[in-house]
Amino acid sequence: MEGDRPPGEPEAAVPPLLVACALGIERFALRGGRGGAPGPVRVVRTGMGPAHAARGVERALAREGWGAAAVVASGFCAGLAPGMHPGDLVVAEETRGPDGALACDGTDLLVEALARAVPGRTVHTGPLTGSDHVVRGPERAALAAGGAIAVDMESAATLRTARAAGPRPLAAVRVVVDAPEHELVRIGTVRGGISAFRVLRAVLPAFFEWHRSLLLPRR
Known about the structure:
Helices cover 33% and strands 24% of the residues. The chain has seven helices and eight strands; from the N terminus they run E-H-E-H-E-E-E-H-E-H-E-H-E-H-H. Strands 3-7-6-4-8 form a five-stranded mixed beta barrel, surrounded by five helices. Helix 4 (137-145) links the parallel strand 6 (123-130) and strand 7 (150-152). It is globular, with a radius of gyration of 16 Å. It starts with 16 loop residues before the first strand and ends with a helix.
């Protein structure tokens, strides 16, 4: 796992924001555009798969000052719904994993913030399901038949681990890198992968807006 701030950072008045992703290329995309954050921000690379995601998030939240952090799982995903294209955005209403479903917070806020941060991009909302391997072909169709709109290997484990560590705002935002009609072999080697990377570079301000909105007093 890699982070952006040294250990032992003092507790901030505003709860921090932790953004977790699996791949180095995802972390590289997510490190830009830090202006406008309401508090401390870290982007951590956990490594691929649910086990790495769980361990990485657990370690990140155990650092001094980060125990109350809001958590966003982000990066790339595989789209399951017909008509999806590389570069489309997925905002999870819930994540699904072996331990069941976990509801996400502020979905509507994120959709609105992403529309401002990445104008013109389609934003899909619905269940985001987890897997411990890359899903292709008939397996994708089976997951879609169960109502999921996208699949990735880390979001469910990331948010489940974060919730187990204490109450906090949780979200999962993914960029479609391939879809049923647009399967890719390697990220970044074809136009679809490049498109997804460019969209991921632009989403961080939307996370800040979501975080800030959830910090406002309830009326």
